[in-house]
Amino acid sequence: MTMTEIDNETGTGGANSLKDKASAARDRASEAYEAARERTSAAYESAREGAGRAKQRTSDGINSNPVAALIGGLALGGLIAAILPKTNREEELLGDYGRRINEKAREAARAARDAGTSKLDELGYNRDMAKDKIESLKSDAAEVARAAAERARSSSRPQS
To answer: What is the CA radius of gyration of the chain?
Structure first.
């Protein structure tokens, strides 16, 4: 009887082969996991760096033109407040008091807008210049976000 016939008869050859295949599959899975983890880590770091650059650019833009940033912030806050619906529960709890708070907030927003507009006029800026600056900041932030997302996507793709 040959060695192969003995292995086939006892079944040890098949068991060893199966164990070897399982071990090889486990090794490949481990390597794939490690590679994916490294790519994910690199993508995260790249996105973090991009966000840091966007933060710095935004900060620089705000520092170079704080009035426009203030007006943009107020406009954004007003937009968010207008979008969020008022609930019945808020109406029940706040009633007239809530309406007075809303009116005071509107007055404060108008006063801030008027003060901002006045300051812009005083500094020689006009509404179009402020809009352009805000659009530039938004565009820069969007560009950084797109680049970070693309880097994250390309880093997470399996390397061939």
So the answer is: 31
Domain that holds residue 110: 15-156
Distance CA 58, CA 72 (A): 12
CB of 13 within 8 A of CB of 4? Answer: yes
DSSP state of 124: T
pLDDT digits (tens, 9 = 90+) for 60-89: 777 777 777 777 777 777 777 767 776 777
22 pLDDT above the threshold of 80? yes
94-148, pLDDT tens digit by residue?
777 777 877 887 888 788 878 877 877 777 777 677 777 778 888 888 888 888 8
- Within the chain, residue ranges assigned H as helices are 3-10, 12-64, 66-83, 88-123, 127-156
Q: Which pair of tokens denotes residue 35?
A: 């590679």
Give the total number of structural domains in the chain. 1
Cβ proximity of 74 and 109 under 8 Å:
yes
Counts for the chain of helices (H) and strands (E), in that order:
5, 0
Residue 51 to residue 45: CA distance in whole angstroms: 10
Rounded CA separation 56/59 (Å)? 5
